[in-house]
Amino acid sequence: MPSPLICSLSEVSRNLTLTTTTTAKALSRYATRVQRVLGIRGEVNICVTSNREMQQLNRRFRKKNKATDVLSFPSSTPGIVGDIAISLQIAAANAEDLDHSLADEVKILILHGMLHLAGLDHEIDNGEMRARESALRAKFGLPVGLIERSNSVPPKTAKRGGRRA
Q1: 148 found inside a domain
Q2: Inside any domain, residue 165
Q3: Domain CATH code at residue 105
Q4: What does 16-35 look like in DSSP terms, one character per residue?
Q5: pTM
């Protein structure tokens, strides 16, 4: 199984402190583990990008003119599972607000995006994706998941309007 391609963080990370656990290589290894656990076979591309780019993607594909933390784009091309786009700026703000590392936040977003690429949809699946995300989050030692916190968003984060729940 090829490792998921993680785009360069350099353009959007100039003002953020990145650690070895936040590097593209480390995140790619994590994404590969998630793929294996979910049984996802094929290429997954992950782009860690800016709020501006996320707003453009969200407007184009979801008709919502605001930045969001994570978007997933399933593919119909054989051998390509799909793409995941993550806002590094929103991830950094969420990590600060929720008092965990940037690496953990990006991993939570990768997990969430991979679950969507695996065919789950928390908006219509009666809690199946939430349960799976919670179990995998515990398996990988990650803090509170995206779906869980969408029901109890901290006040500082709610003002950003960047969640894709």
Answers
A1: yes
A2: no
A3: 3.40.390.30
A4: S---GGGSHHHHHHHHHHHH
A5: 0.79
Q: What is the pLDDT of residues 94-120, one digit of tens each?
A: 999 888 889 999 999 999 999 999 999
For 128, the domain range is 5-158
- Collapsing DSSP states into helix, strand and coil, what is residue 126? coil
The answer to the question of residue 11 being in a domain is yes
End-to-end CA distance of the chain: 29
Q: Is 19 left (phi over 0), alpha (psi -120 to 50) or beta?
A: beta
**Rounded Cα–Cα distance for residues 130 and 72 (Å):** 16
The residue written with tokens 């006040």 in the block is 155
d(CA 42, CA 80): 5
CB-based contacts of 123: which residues, under 8 Å, 6+ apart?
none
Spatial neighbors of 5 by CB under 8 A, at least 6 apart, are 28, 43, 44, 45, 46
